[in-house]
Amino acid sequence: MPPKRPRRDGSDQQHGAAGGKKETLRDRRFDAVNAGVEEACQEVEEERKQLAEEKARSIAEAQEAAIKLKADAAIEVDEMRRKLQEERAALEEEKAAMEKAHTFQKKKVLLNVGGHRFETSLQTLTSVPATYFASLFSGRFELTLDAEGTYSIDRDGIHFRHILNFLRDAGSFKLSSEVTEGQKEELAVEAKFYGLLDRMMPYYAQERVGQALLQRACLTGTNQELRTAVAQARVLVFEIGSTTPFLTDEFQDVQFAISDRVVNGSPVWAASSGIGELFVYRGVPAGIDSGMMVIGDMAGCVEGVDKYSIFNTTLTGDTGAAPTDLPTDMWVSKARATLEPEYAAAERIIPGGNVVWVPSMRITVVHGLRDGDPTMAAALR
Known about the structure:
By secondary structure, this protein is of the alpha+beta class. The protein contains 10 helices and 12 strands. It folds into 2 domains: about 110-200, Potassium Channel Kv1.1, Chain A, CATH 3.30.710; about 205-380, no CATH class.
């Protein structure tokens, strides 16, 4: 029997329609999944490309930095090499100069000073700056040697040994006590020629002033004048100041040296250190002041002028006095010599006045004639 044909009733049609919808839905889902996968793959690919580009860029930057670092390092190495070469050249130059100087300084020098022959070295002769020999062997002058290779100096050769001994050991040189006053005067002339007087005999000029004071007092003075001259000759150089911060720098810790100048019948000590021009001298020997010892500038240090900044209230009378004879607690000061705060608070010598007491004033003797000096010995007798 032939097979039966399928029935084409409504149920078959409904079944076919349902199957078609399922296939369509499945196809749509498949397409959606594919689209999502493709989109995800594209994003992954984009990220991969970005990563690759960033990696390539980083590598390029690293290579560029490495090249720059290498170039900078090369420049730095070249600079270090150049500096090293310069330092080496400078060192070699300095070494050569030192060797030359060493050879120069150790070179034996023969001198003929006034017919007296001496042998020394350039190191000794040029050991003290700003002297005759430092200038002579500075290289600025053409020097001439005699046939025996000797430098001739037309000066007194008898005292030159003292000059040479000082140059050999300037720091501890002491003139022998056996040198007489006459020989000392001759030596001073030679030391001055060689530019060494102030260093060899630092107080020579002041000693001459002290000796002149004593000689004059011995010849024509009274006993009082003689005692005053002795006191002054013992204080040829002194330092004065306050041990407290009371005076201005101009008047604090100033060293004074006696000079050959006389004002109001008494010697003048001139400042050899400190600020400005200051002098210690006796004031006008008349009136109530009666020649008090004062400290002032050039304007006041004039015969018959009564102008100063610091003075000692002790009356010295007509004979004058040495600064060390005066009581240290009797010094007074005007405003110029006193620090402003101290001046404002200081005790006035006269209530309401402009002069104040200077506390803790001191005078320290730096140099004076010894009792063994011939003129001092004669005055003491």
